[in-house]
């Protein structure tokens, strides 16, 4: 049995074939066989360090929370980030705030 590649979006090892497509059951991403092996954009922090899923980062400036009067303070530590595509390219959970999306330009790797 041939070894199938990991999902290019979430790195899940549980991909399966569905006709001419590969499918990830965890994030529902579909791609053609032989494409998107390592085509993900490299996401870097404010200092130019490459970020990976699961890294811990620190917020480098006070950030207003959209839709709230709260502020994320400079120096707040964020554990176990998840990289996603889009303008806000980091998904995370922050203690006291909950699920958040951050821009990589406002964090530095610990």
From TrEMBL:
It holds the Pfam family Zn_Ribbon_YjdM. SUPFAM superfamilies: Prokaryotic SH3-related domain, Zinc beta-ribbon. Residues 3-31 form the Protein YjdM N-terminal domain. It comes from the Bacteria. Residues 43-109 form the Protein YjdM C-terminal domain. InterPro entries: YjdM, YjdM_C, YjdM_N. Belongs to the YjdM family. PANTHER family: PROTEIN YJDM, PROTEIN YJDM-RELATED. This is Alkylphosphonate utilization protein.
């Amino acid at each position: 049995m041939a070894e199938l590649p990991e999902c290019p979006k979430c790195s899940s090892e549980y991909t399966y074939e569905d006709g001419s497509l590969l499918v990830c059951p965890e994030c529902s991403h579909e791609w053609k066989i032989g494409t998107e092996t390592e085509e993900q954009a490299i996401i870097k922090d404010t200092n130019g360090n490459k970020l990976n899923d699961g890294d811990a980062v620190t917020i480098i400036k006070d950030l207003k929370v959209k839709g709230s009067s709260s502020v994320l303070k400079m120096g707040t530590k964020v554990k176990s980030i998840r990289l996603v595509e889009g303008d806000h390219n980091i998904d995370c959970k922050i203690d006291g705030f909950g699920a958040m999306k951050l821009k990589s330009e406002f964090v530095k790797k610990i």
